[in-house]
Amino acid sequence: MTIPPRQEPASPRDLVGIGIGPCNLSLAALAHPLAELDAVFYEQRPGFDWHPGLLIDGATIQVPFLADLVTLADPTSRWTFLNYLRTRARLFPFYFSERFHIERAEYDAYCRWVAQSLPGLHFRHQVDAVRWNPERDVFEVDFTQLDADGEAEALGRTYTRNIVLGVGTVPYVPDPLRPLVDMPGVPVLHAADYLAHRETVLAAEHVTVVGSGQSGAEIFLDLLRRRPSGREKLHWIGRTEAFAPMEYSKLGLEHFTPDYTRYFHALAEPVRDRLVAAQWQLHKGIDAGTLAAIHDELYRRTLDGGWPDAVLTPGVSVRTAGRIATTKVELHLDHLQQDSRSRLTTGAVVLATGYRERPLGRILAGLDPYLRRDSSERPRIDEGFRLVLDPSVTGSVYVQNAELHTHGVGAPDLGLAAWRSATILNTLTAKDPYPLPVRTAFTTFGLDEVQSRMPQARQAQRLVPLVEGS
């Protein structure tokens, strides 16, 4: 069957966005009022959804509602969360609920409202390739338009001066467990698919949750609440040395400010790599409220005497795994501190093992000759979220949530989405449509900033030389 081409504008667009998750949705919302900007966004999925397998009742996002798609760059935007509530006649109920952190399902509903209302978003469009055309000084973007069944319906090509990649992350499955996920029989699934398979998991005699982050805690709590008292038969394991709370002190949260992002970007590459590994508790810990809810639920089950049949073991990694007939899975465990090994037989496994940045190799293969990389072969990304390309490429390729190695722990954080989007639009238009604050943190992260942040009077005192006897 010959697939007909789809007609695109002859003149190049200003911006093509690839992927429509929260990051690019934020960019699209802030780009919307900029009438002079010709921007379009492509997404291969049929519509917006945000971690549908983890929209567990009561689970909240870890940032305040002000960290919506636009507010921290433009609180007057029509796309704020508060305006979403107004359009639904829910402002007063929200006001009286006194909620600072909204439920994950409500954040998803808000984003879907924005996605359904914004022009320029094209779902069921799979981007196949990106190339630089040196003769026209533009990027070529090839895509396939998909029908309702996900089959190719039309081919298209558009030209653009700039690109922004917001393709998101993919579920990470550890190597020892990867073969089990694809096999029939005993359910072994990633947390991303939890709600779709929850009843199957609950039907298992014994369930193991692997992963000591927020998703693992939420899934363990959800399973615990749904299993009968005294017959819970749950085991929760994780690699970290403790089921540790997320760093949520007010000064600790300043690691998610533009100030820290700029400081981190200026550090040497080896220092940045060490920091990312050491700062896991800033973004991979567990919300203190979730930990408290787990303890409360376990404690409630001791009221009639005895202990719940639930085991919580941190400091454990899965070395290997295999199936026993068709009804069980055997996990071979290493205890990191004891340097000991054991086996765990279970009837279902939920892997709350997190996500990894989606590989960009397929999409960026056509740009590979122009791409500059660091010592670990990762793309170099400048302070303005642009891939560092050969100077012969006059256009820019921006990235969203693919810059953890260059911009730090704030890269995947929803709280910086609006600021990053505004930064990209300010750079792209060269007009600063969104004035951004120069300073955002009380903490001064580097010594080179100390002098500039001292009040003028103190600076003057510091510059006066000491005189003996004065």
**Secondary structural class:** alpha/beta
Radius of gyration (CA) equals 25 Å
Fraction of residues in β-strands: 15-25%
Helix fraction by DSSP (H/I, runs of at least 4):
25-40%
Average per-residue pLDDT, rounded, comes to 92
Number of strands: 19
- Major pleated sheet: 5 strands, parallel
Uncertain spans: 459-470
Widest sheet: strand ordering: 4-3-2-8-19
Shape: globular
Count of discrete alpha- or pi-helical segments spanning 4 or more residues? 16
Termini Cα gap:
92 Å
Characteristic key phrases:
disordered C terminus, 470 residues, 27% helix, alpha/beta, globular
Topology at a glance:
Blueprint: E1 5-6, E2 15-18, H1 22-31, E3 39-43, H2 81-87, H3 91-97, H4 104-117, E4 121-123, E5 125-133, E6 138-146, E7 152-160, E8 162-165, E9 169-171, H5 178-181, E10 188-190, H6 198-202, E11 207-210, H7 214-226, E12 234-237, H8 258-265, H9 269-278, H10 280-283, H11 288-300, E13 310-313, E14 316-324, E15 328-335, E16 340-346, E17 348-351, E18 355-357, H12 361-364, E19 396-399, H13 404-407, H14 417-429, H15 450-453, H16 456-463
Parallel strand pairs: 1-7, 2-3, 2-8, 3-4, 8-19, 10-17, 11-12, 11-17, 12-13
Antiparallel strand pairs: 5-6, 6-7, 9-18, 14-15, 15-16
Helix pairs in contact: 1-14, 7-11
Structural summary, described in words:
With 470 residues, the protein is α/β, with parallel strands linked by helices. The chain has helices at residues 22-31, 81-87, 91-97, 104-117, 178-181, 198-202, 214-226, 258-265, 269-278, 280-283, 288-300, 361-364, 404-407, 417-429, 450-453, 456-463, and strands at residues 5-6, 15-18, 39-43, 121-123, 125-133, 138-146, 152-160, 162-165, 169-171, 188-190, 207-210, 234-237, 310-313, 316-324, 328-335, 340-346, 348-351, 355-357, 396-399. A hairpin with a 4-residue loop joins β5 (125-133) and β6 (138-146). The termini are far apart. The model is unreliable at 459-470 (pLDDT under 50).
